[in-house]
């Protein structure tokens, strides 16, 4: 029997998807809805989705509060058993999840099916394992036996972005659940449907009612109501710095710990002694998913002596990209998520052109899909100044900048010249230089001669306006827990 049953449902790519909220183990509707359209063809309405409000938020927090005692008391082994069943169901339903998320968000179907969605199952398994493997710190001092223990923090709100919504939701929700917290997930209104399927899978896995809840709607409405509820104990957010400021104020008013991953403007630094062909191929790969990737190295910086050779290689690899239908395996660049976002990205390019920056390639809407198509040509811009808007601000589209540097100090100066600090990529043939650059570049993650190689136990997060806090491994489990210092006087008699 398929787990995708119950509630008001719509057909998306042959998969039945509920358009209702999931609260307290049941599907719950709303008197109002919002439209959800497909980036692959904006004339296609996928669904009218339940539009939550303050009452919906209160109901979801009620459910999370009520479910917390049982879930937190279940222990890491009991919670882990449920989470592993969720992981097994994710693996079993990857084709359906891919069909829905491809149409809803436009990420390449092949990438979703072969790589991205299986990461959701890995997240559930990895955090179930890590929670069980936790070793309390134990020591003796001042005549006492001492232990540091983790306690589940309590009801948690998770707010996720529209890019890779299923995987990023599991990335945040899995450690919260493994730590013993109950969760209310609010997915982005531009791509909510695969998160609705996640609720179905959790239900099928036997997760107790109220432990995992999904509330859909507009951020300013239901999202604001969720994060301001004084019963919350944790908030985790991925999105824009402007939205994070609003959430941070709400969290501060109730003294609730808050993590935020807020995007990046990663430098992609290429030294002349590197494998230039490998570097150029990886740089051209930053156009993947239409550049809608927070970790992308969007500021290409090349040692001046290698400029011409690198650019020739880069254009060769960029020319091989295929804009097209995300369900076609031949496609390498998908459309952007929404007309509003398309206009924002195009606006950056037009302002750069007007300011005198040089468009080295692209710089306009693709003819694919006509005037309403959301494909934008892969674009490379050489700015007149490092202060150019397109260099200093996150575009989050298929738009890269190109600059040259003279030496290591110059490369570090350029790399650290924005307010962001999420990730960086360095290509060099020198181990000593790699070590120096890894230490000097200010970013939460620095990759050398590779990109997007992830270890789920490693910390992930940013510096500056790229965010606060760290996700991943024990860093996430510590955030979703309260630490208790437990002391017993040695040689206590009864």
Q: Strand order, biggest sheet?
A: 16-17-18-15-14-19-20
Query: In whole angstroms, how far apart are the ends?
Result: 57 Å
* Biggest sheet statistics: 7 strands, mixed
Rounded to the nearest angstrom, the radius of gyration is: 23 Å
Mean pLDDT: 96
CATH superfamily caption of the largest domain: Aldehyde Dehydrogenase, Chain A, domain 1
CATH architecture of the largest domain: 3-Layer(aba) Sandwich
The rough form would be described as globular
CATH class value of the largest domain: Alpha Beta
Q: Low-confidence spans: pLDDT under 50, at least 5 residues?
A: none
CATH topology name of the largest domain, in short, is Aldehyde Dehydrogenase, Chain A, domain 1
Number of self-contained structural domains? 2
Query: Based on DSSP secondary structure assignment, what is the total number of beta strands?
Result: 22
Number of helices: 15
Structural class: alpha/beta
């Amino acid at each position: 029997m398929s787990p995708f049953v119950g509630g008001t449902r719509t057909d998306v790519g042959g998969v039945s998807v509920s358009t209702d909220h999931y609260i307290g183990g049941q599907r719950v509707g709303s008197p109002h809805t919002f439209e959800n359209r497909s980036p692959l063809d904006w004339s296609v309405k996928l669904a009218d989705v339940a539009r939550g409000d303050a009452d919906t938020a209160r109901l979801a927090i009620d459910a999370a509060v009520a479910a917390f005692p049982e879930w937190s008391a279940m222990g890491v082994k009991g919670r882990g058993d449920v989470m592993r069943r969720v992981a097994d169901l994710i693996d079993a339903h990857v084709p359906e999840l891919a069909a829905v998320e491809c149409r809803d968000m436009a990420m390449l179907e092949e990438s979703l099916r072969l790589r991205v969605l299986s990461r959701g199952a890995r997240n559930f398994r990895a955090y179930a394992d890590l929670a069980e493997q936790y070793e309390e710190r134990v020591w003796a001092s001042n005549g006492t036996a001492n232990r540091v223990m983790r306690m589940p923090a309590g009801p948690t709100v998770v707010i996720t972005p529209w890019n890779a919504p299923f995987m990023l939701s599991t990335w945040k929700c899995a450690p919260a659940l493994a730590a013993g917290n109950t969760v209310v997930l609010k997915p982005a209104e531009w791509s909510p449907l695969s998160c609705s399927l996640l609720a179905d899978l959790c239900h099928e896995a036997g997760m107790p009612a109220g432990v995992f809840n999904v509330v859909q709607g507009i951020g300013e409405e239901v999202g604001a109501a969720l994060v301001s509820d004084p019963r919350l104990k944790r908030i985790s957010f991925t999105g824009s710095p402007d939205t994070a400021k609003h959430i941070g104020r709400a969290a501060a008013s109730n003294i609730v710990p808050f993590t935020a991953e807020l995007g990046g403007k990663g430098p992609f630094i290429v030294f002349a002694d590197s494998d230039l062909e490998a570097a150029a191929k990886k740089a051209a790969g930053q156009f993947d998913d239409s550049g809608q990737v927070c970790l992308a190295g969007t500021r290409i910086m090349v040692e001046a002596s290698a400029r011409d050779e690198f650019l020739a290689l880069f254009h060769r690899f960029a020319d091989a990209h295929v804009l097209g239908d995300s369900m076609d395996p031949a496609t390498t660049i998908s459309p952007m998520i929404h007309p509003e976002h398309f206009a924002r990205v195009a606006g950056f390019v037009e302002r750069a052109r007007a300011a005198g920056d040089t468009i080295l390639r692209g710089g306009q809407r693709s003819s694919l899909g006509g005037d309403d198509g959301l494909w934008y040509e892969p674009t490379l811009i050489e700015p007149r100044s490092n202060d150019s808007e397109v260099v200093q601000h996150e575009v989050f589209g298929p738009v890269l900048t190109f600059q040259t540097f003279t030496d290591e100090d110059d490369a570090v100066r350029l790399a650290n010249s924005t307010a962001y600090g999420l990730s960086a990529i360095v290509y060099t043939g020198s181990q000593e230089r790699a070590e120096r650059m890894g230490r000097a570049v200010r970013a939460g993650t620095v990759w050398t001669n590779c990109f997007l190689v992830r270890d789920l136990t490693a910390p992930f997060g940013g510096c500056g306006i790229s965010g606060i806090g760290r996700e991943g491994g024990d860093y996430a489990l510590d955030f979703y827990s309260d630490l208790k210092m437990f002391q017993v006087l040695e040689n206590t008699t009864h």
